[in-house]
Request: fold
Amino acid sequence: MSADSGRTDAGGPQAAAQDVAQDVAQDVAAPTGAAPAAARPPAIEFRHVTKVYGEGTPRQYIAISDVSFTIEDVVDHGEICSFLGPSGCGKSTVLRLVAGLEPQHPPSIGRVTVLGHEVAGPGADRGMVFQDYTSFDNRTVLDNVTFGLECRGMPRRERHALGLEWIAKVGLDPRRDARKYPHELSGGMRQRVAIARTLILRPRIILMDEPFGALDPATRLDMQDLLVKLWRDVEATVLFVTHSVEEAVYLGDRVFVMATTPGRIVGDLRLPPASAPAREIQSQPWFRDNVRSLHEQIERIESDAKRLNGGAA
Reply:
């Protein structure tokens, strides 16, 4: 598959409140005053990163091994980078190392930096959206969306005005939905709330761990289109973990392919950004060709992993 393949010009259970608080604790507006383009450090950089769980015990397990990559901080634009691979390849480990979340953080070997600084834990420059519908059950949609602003001390009137604006941006009805509680929403609506809660704080780095994996196919396509639209507005760097080849190809300016046993990067495909809705793009020959090639690569990775596991047995 050629990295020159281009896009046409056409056209789960709810998490506990503690988990939500940890999520939102990272979702704080990034500092202003960006460095000149020539001086900008990479948005994210992994330098020979290995993560071992249970090190020195009989249950020792290497999640990822010697992972290195650089994602540039693209001025006034940002980039969406998809991470694709079979279960157990370490996609979520990579994401949570960037987020600074335990037990994935810190790496066993190597260095992870965000905007030129080594990751020491959750930070103001990163926001995360999980697959689970992380919400406070006893807070309305509006209060969930504005929770991070409340933590920062923004006055109620100001944060509610901004919250209503973001509720509308993610495709919900401010008049009808703002006073609803999470149990009154569909899965797709709850993920819209989670996205609004993250993006309202305009983080420089957005980390998304299979956020659309539990949605039905039609809603999933709608959410992909929404993400592209909002990403253009916030101009952030997005790391997007998915099992879906189609989703990775549509969303990714860049697609990292990961293999397992142990987890490592075996492919780095660059694609121009999406230029049309997902339903339209998926009918294009270039899209089908890239999807087919990636499916074949994933199948080879899975076959190789089974063969290695069988040999070890």
Residues 42-125+205-214+237-303 form a domain with the Rossmann fold fold (CATH 3.40.50.300). The CA atoms of residues 138 and 181 lie 7 Å apart. The mean pLDDT is 86. DSSP finds eleven helices and ten strands in the chain.
